[in-house]
Amino acid sequence: MSDPRIIVALDFPIAKQALELTAKLDPRWCRVKVGKELFTAAGPQLVEKLMGKGFDVFLDLKFHDIPNTVANACKAAAGLGVWMMNIHALGGRRMLSAAREAVPIGLSKLIAVTLLTSMERSDLNEIGLNGDPQDVVQRLALLARDCGMDGVVCSALEAPSLRKMMGRDFCLVTPGIRPVDASLNEQKRVSTPRQAIENGADYLVIGRPVTQARDPVSMLWRLNEEIEGTRRNEE
Ligand code: C5P
User: Fold this and answer.
1) What are the pLDDT digits (tens) for 89-101?
2) Phi and psi torsions of 152, nearest 5°
């Protein structure tokens, strides 16, 4: 598989656990995501180790700060050689544009988080973001594209409207994916891998269904098969 669509979220507290899991996985079948917990504990050395094993790494640190600071953080991430990184669209136009300037197109994929899916309408109202959350997501996605972002993180349920608005070349990355018979954990608005791809997602972030599986390798295989079926139907 030349372009695996599954990104396994390595949500572990220490490097050892991430390395034990990735020792079983094949970089031809998935990419991996390193988030705030693991990166804070294990740092760039772990990212380098994972890349050394052949994995494309999505550095999920959701930068949000003044433009200069975010630009420099993005430059450091691109210098590490990560495949994808993300920043908050709520940082605004100048922050997004500064990040884009720091990471030339084609080096690492630079994507934006619109609204965190954990935010409910009441949370948004409380911080002054009134209106329909869907509208806010669309506005932030348009801003992100306008500032040259390669794509956005969104829920699979938001993917169809964003795909329509943004066209084929805008990258949609969707978390909250669960196989049909899996436990939901605390994720509320979930989709199956097949639904997410059919809705227009390019990459699926999948954590616990793989990391907590009794047999992560077969689970990954099964998820890929489901996606491949969808891809063949698309072609
Ligand atoms: O274990 P699970 O599949 O729920 O993991 C989902 C991953 O996607 C986690 O690493 C989480 O931080 C991330 N994520 C999410 N919802 C978002 C953005 C990121 O669940 N809106």
Assistant:
1) 999 999 999 999 9
2) -140, 160
